[in-house]
Amino acid sequence: MASDPTFDSQGRYVAVTRGVTVRVKPAYLPRQSDPESGRHVWAYEVTIENGGSETVQLLNRHWRITDGHGRVEIVDGPGVVGEQPVLQPGQRHTYASGCPLPTPSGIMVGHYEMVNEKGERFLVEIPAFSLDLPGGDRAVN
């Protein structure tokens, strides 16, 4: 599902699926990180915007998190940060979360399972985004 990264004017990673736009902005958290003990922490803000013509609800999330050594962790679960938002056409939902890694870089990618008013379930791409230390080149690893 992942493609080459697309960025908006605010430097957020962007993907659009069936009229639903997902924008992600990661940020390294140096105060929560402890590089000497192999702990690097990032926050990320996600905005989901319904640009389609039908109301949709986010049911589940699926993340594939890969650290700098290629180790993969899969995270599946209901909703996002305890919510399963319903988005009418033109509405958006923004939330923040975080990710610790044992390496100073990594990548996250995934999808949301959504349902429309007709009960049709479909997947919405979360763009692949790079977790890199500040001052480094930003690229999808």
UniProtKB/TrEMBL annotation:
Classification via Pfam families: DUF525
SUPFAM superfamilies (alphabetical): ApaG-like
Residue ranges occupied by any ApaG domain in the UniProt entry: 14-138
NCBIfam families: PRK05461.1 (NF003967)
Protein name: Protein ApaG
